[in-house]
Amino acid sequence: MNEIALAPVAVLLAAPLLTALLSAATNHPFVLRALNLGTMTALALSEAVIVGDLSGHGAITTLWGLVYLDGLSAFILLIIIAIGCTASVYSWDYLADHVARGTIAPGRTRLFFCLFHLFLFAMIVATLANSLGVLWVAMEGTTLATAFLISFFRTREGLEAGWKYLILCSVGIALALFGTVLMYYSSVRVLGDVSAALNVTILQQVASQLDPQVLKLAFIFVLVGYGTKIGLAPMHSWVPEAYGEAPAPVVAMLAGVLETVAVYALLRTKSIVDQAVPDYYTGNLLLLLGLLSFVVAALFILIQHDYKRMFAYSSIEHMGIAIAGFGVGGPAGTFGGLFHLLNHALAKSLAFFAAGNIHRRFGTREIQEVHGMASVQPITALAVLIAGLALAGMPPFSMFLSEMLVLSSLATQSFASDTLHLGRFITVIIAHDVRNLAVVLLFLLFAVALFGGFIYRVVLMVWGTAPRDVPSGERWSVSHIPLAVTALALIGLGWAIPEPVKGLMDQAVIVLLGR
Amino acid sequence: MTSILQAVVLIAVQTGIMLAVAPFIVGLIRKVKARLQLRRGAGVLQPYADLAKLFRKQPIISTTTSWIFTATPYILFASTLLAGLLVPMFTSRIPLSFAGNIIALVYLFGLGTFFLILAGLDAGSAFGGMGSSREAIVASLTEPAMIMSIFAIALTAGSTNLSTIVHKTALLDGIVLDPSPHLMALAALMIVALAETGRVPVDNPATHLELTMIHEAMVLEYSGRYLALVEWAAALKLLVFLTLIANVFAPWGIATSLEPVALAVGVVAYLAKVSGLALVIGVIESMFAKLRLFRLPDFLGLAFILALLAVIFFYVLRG
Amino acid sequence: MPAFDIGSQLVNLGSALLLLSCFAIVAQRRLSACVDLFALQSVFLAATAALVAFLTGIHHIYAAAGLTILIKAVVIPNILKQVIERLNVNREVDMNVNVPTGLLICGGLVMLAFFITQPIIPLGALLTRDSLAIALAIVLIGFFTMIARNKAVTQIIGFLVMENGLFLGATAAAYGMPLIVELGVFFDVLVGTLIIGLYTHRLQDTFDTVDTSRLTALKE
Description:
The complex is a heterotrimer of chains A (515), B (319) and C (220). Chain A is mainly α and 515 residues long. Chain A has 19 helices and four strands. In chain A, the strands form two sheets. In chain A, strands 1-2 form a two-stranded antiparallel sheet. In chain A, strands 3-4 form a two-stranded antiparallel ribbon. The model of chain A has no long low-confidence stretch (mean pLDDT 85). Chain C has helices at 2-27, 31-56, 60-87, 99-117, 131-148, 152-174, 179-207. In chain C, helix 3 runs parallel beside helix 7 (179-207), helix 4 (99-117) runs antiparallel to helix 5 (131-148) and helix 5 (131-148) runs antiparallel to helix 6 (152-174). Chain C is globular and about 55 Å long. The interface between B and C is medium-sized, with 21 and 27 residues.
């Protein structure tokens, strides 16, 4: 259908897979680094070509209809590749350092890169897939690829966290498959054709004829399933443990990218369900789970004493904000949600890169035992400060903008339905401005609590007198480039969004709003 | 006049078949087990010889026992036989169908079990008491499962009358055919049958090991013709359960009218079905080990849940 | 259409057998017997799928049925048996919920599944009416098994039972997923079982137990 798109798509799929295979074959650090750099450059270039293509064509279907790309998937792909690049560069020194300390056997770096690229591959497949079934398979693939990355240090705690992650995500994702089966069930009855009935391109055409009852049920299963992967509130218990135990570059990928891809899976389903079901149905569910995650995470951040877990809860919180934005919907909420996904990916990967540096220097994850980073690790301290302020939603950073967008959409959106059904017999009608006011007040209340707790802990870590046994000073090295780039991006996006990215997000909003 | 005569003849034939076939089924199960254990085993007619021998022997009765001990074999035998007459065997038009309610069947079995438990206690020996208490546990656990599973079947046929259920199922007439409730109820009833007749996962009829026996412990004090009656009643009970399962879940071949040809086909089909079930029980007994007594509630609980599900399935699917 | 009617009865019978084996798994205490029951359930699943393929004439379901036999009834049970062999520990299931209560809860889950799928079942112009509900019930029971049992192996079995339920739902209610998706799902299940099996070894080595309730190093 489209010859221009075939080449970059092929590169996107082949590069990580090939690198995974080649990484498994060699253990030479220099070769591994060169491979990484090559793959990442290839990925970035093909993404650039795709963005260019999309601005001309709108949506691309290629590879015999197996691959479907539109603004939304290209935007998610952008996040995957951006964070993938920084995380891969960051992991060079990180792994070398751990090998030097003897916490990782030298032969296992290749296993790391092999799994890392398989993980990347699974996520790229998830975003490129035309079929919701393949999307599911790829999502399960990410779980499998990361299972050993999380317990890479082979400690007791790491194994425990990995086990919990594996079991919870497998179960969650199984429920998502049931939702997918239900969607298939409804579309097969409209289409009568088996092979393509899960394809996004087909589903978009027939979505309005699908049976709303089945779709409603399907959406609940998909929401619970992919919600587990996103780490939304009632299903979030694996998040702090996995993020606390896994190696820093892996956590940066999990927090920045995997969550985003899971959100993508959810949004893809939502965009189809919305065409058959009144959109406040999915919207209200998302809003509910989003705000719940926000509130739960805010409460847990206040009692954290481990900085990696604190950042993990902050992930839950920010995913809650983004999901709430998508739940409110409308151009403002949706755009805010997408922008928030990008900002969160940047800020959270920065935070975890910094956390990896701190952990290696201080040898502890306790906030109480980390003081005086400003003198011990000035560069990392600056990164923690930037990430902390951005995650707390402070103005000069782009996160402030997206949070404000979501908040203002929460405040102004008039809900399509003001009636709240409690059971079968009780119906409560709430004027929408009262409801908006209540939601916004709740949001602000917890945002303030969260802000205080977060900043307090970051300040505690950055300033103060350093413990005596920790060596002072930080030399500039390659592994600081990801930190610098990410921090600059966070600040830069706060001033202006580059035109191609903006165009991509506008297209994604159009896809999500179904216009 | 003819109808009364007919009824008398039918009852007589059914009684005759039951009395004659019951020991054969026991012998068949033993033979199957022996063969599966690569033994030649006693002939299938051995139980007849055993019964004949026991009837000839002099009974010895403990001096500490009361009338209950001597009355129990007769009560047990009579109640089991009567229960058997309520279940359609080779024809669905049994003369006692006016009384042939499932609940009556359950309570006739209950009566026999009750007296057997009393008799076990009556002799005052340790084994009898132990057997009785265990039997009481098993009986109290199986009863609800049994009633539930039969009710599930009754619901699908719309009647608690056994001959109506069988008649309708055989003719596929006005009955709800749905595999799920039937399957659940069948599994439940199979477990109940194994438990009630003291077969393997619950009890082992071939053991006299004091730690494990249930039914054998209760009847340990009996001898001579009393023991013969108890053994025969046990065989009858097994046969009645097999008849119930065969005819409620697979009534095909049963005579739905009183034509001689149909009746003859019915008798042959009946013998084939119960023999087949006896084979199945022999295989089950060879495959599984006896459960520990404390695990019995799990096993029988499974029967109850399955039966309950069968009922629920019926309501949900029709609801 | 009497022929179709008998066919749908048979498919329902197959689904009911699957559900029955779920209950057997919940009631079973010996690990290796649980694995056997899972293999048996997979055989029922394959038979049901083959039946659907025969009745609808959709050929790729045969392939899925064959894969089910190969992977779920042969390969995975063998992997699990090896895991159990090497564990060399108490081979009984540890449970948070005892068997009768567990069975009652599962009964409740079956009702819940019927209740949830009630609104969409009357639309079933397809082969089966209650297979979808039974499929959901199996998924929920698998989920429950994962929560209620502590041994790592039983948790794998719970996950695989969920997977069987999903496959039943896809096959019986919607005539099977597209082949590429089905292959992907089989691949995921196989790799997932391998990974979980490896994890079990690591857990065994590190904690000297596969009782996952002992995993308490991580606390709030």
